[in-house]
Specification:
- The chain folds into 3 domains: 2-90 and 180-209, 3-Layer(aba) Sandwich (D-Maltodextrin-Binding Protein, domain 2); 92-179, Periplasmic binding protein-like II (D-Maltodextrin-Binding Protein, domain 2, 3-Layer(aba) Sandwich); 212-283, Alpha-Beta Plaits (2-Layer Sandwich).
- It is α/β, with parallel strands linked by helices and 289 residues long.
- The chain is built from 9 helices and 15 strands.
């Protein structure tokens, strides 16, 4: 049996549920059902729900074989786990922030001052590398209030959009750490349970598909060379003859290719100018690595 631990609530919960569903592991429990465990369609895989901050230890200690959590939490806990895959969601920054009307403009201005944070290890390492001596005040939440009540002169806290800082009349003066969500594994389990790599492959196939689109079009055979020059693909386009061409004098080919999603707008316009028509752009569910 392989046990996967995922965030039970918060901003990482729904994206995790979504990527597992897309990978073929629909999960029904979690925040709303208050379940601690959930079966999957694979009888050898079960899901455990836990706080994102606890997941590094769950995986390190073998309570779970695989986990999903932020790299900031993994780093802060110093967890001895194997990082398998950047899942590329849950993007956020740990920022150094001060009151809007303070005179602090850079980290070096905080020499000898107090900094409140839920991430004392990352914060300590950041200031150590800068050669700045500070006093760390460890808090378990609501960092933003500490400068207002005189507990700290600055904070190091998670910021996704900056809205919370703005509401609390604070400003970021530096980025301390950048984080996304990772798939991690217990090192011993990784050596003994082959299905862990199958789970990694399934999730990776979803990530690959999100970044690409399947492009289909009809083109005159005389334009094929120009089409190939415009059309990048994973291993070149697939070309097939269209038997039902309206004009017997004109040979029409069907051209299919997988292209990067962020190139679609530019490529489609170029293709139309050199004769491509009946162009279809189709999302892809999975691309197996």
């Amino acid at each position: 049996m392989i046990r996967i631990v995922i965030p039970n609530k918060g901003r990482l919960h729904e994206p995790t549920i979504s990527i597992f569903r897309d990978a073929g592991f629909p999960i029904r429990g979690g925040a709303e059902s208050r379940k601690l465990f959930e079966k999957t369609i694979d009888p050898e895989i079960s899901i455990l729900f836990a706080r994102a901050s606890d997941i590094p230890e769950y995986v390190q200690d073998g309570a779970a074989d695989v986990g999903i959590t932020g790299i900031d939490l993994i780093t802060e806990r110093g967890a001895d786990v194997e990082t398998l895959l950047d899942l590329k969601f849950g993007k956020s920054n740990l920022v150094l922030a001060v009151l809007e009307d303070s005179n602090f403009e850079k980290a070096q201005d905080l020499e000898g001052k107090k900094v409140a944070t839920e991430f004392p290890k990352i914060t300590g390492q950041y200031f150590k590398e800068l050669g700045v001596n500070i006093n760390i005040i460890k808090v378990s939440g609501a960092c933003e209030i500490t400068p207002h009540v005189g507990i700290a002169d600055a904070i190091v806290d998670i910021s996704s959009s900056g809205t919370t800082l703005m509401i609390n009349h604070m400003k970021a003066i530096d980025k301390v750490f950048s984080s996304t969500v990772y798939l991690i594994a217990n090192k011993e389990s990784l050596q003994t349970k082959d299905k862990i790599l199958d789970i990694k492959t399934a999730l990776e196939s979803v990530l690959n598909a999100k970044e690409r689109r399947y492009l289909m079009m009809n083109v005159p055979e005389t334009s094929l060379k120009a089409i190939k020059e415009v059309l990048p693909g994973m291993s070149g386009p697939t070309v097939m003859k269209v038997e039902s061409s309206k004009s017997p004098e004109e040979s029409i080919l069907a051209v299919h290719a997988v292209v990067d999603a962020n190139l679609i707008f530019t490529i489609v316009n170029k293709l139309k100018k050199i004769g491509a028509r009946d162009i279809l752009v189709v999302p892809i569910e999975r691309i197996m690595p």
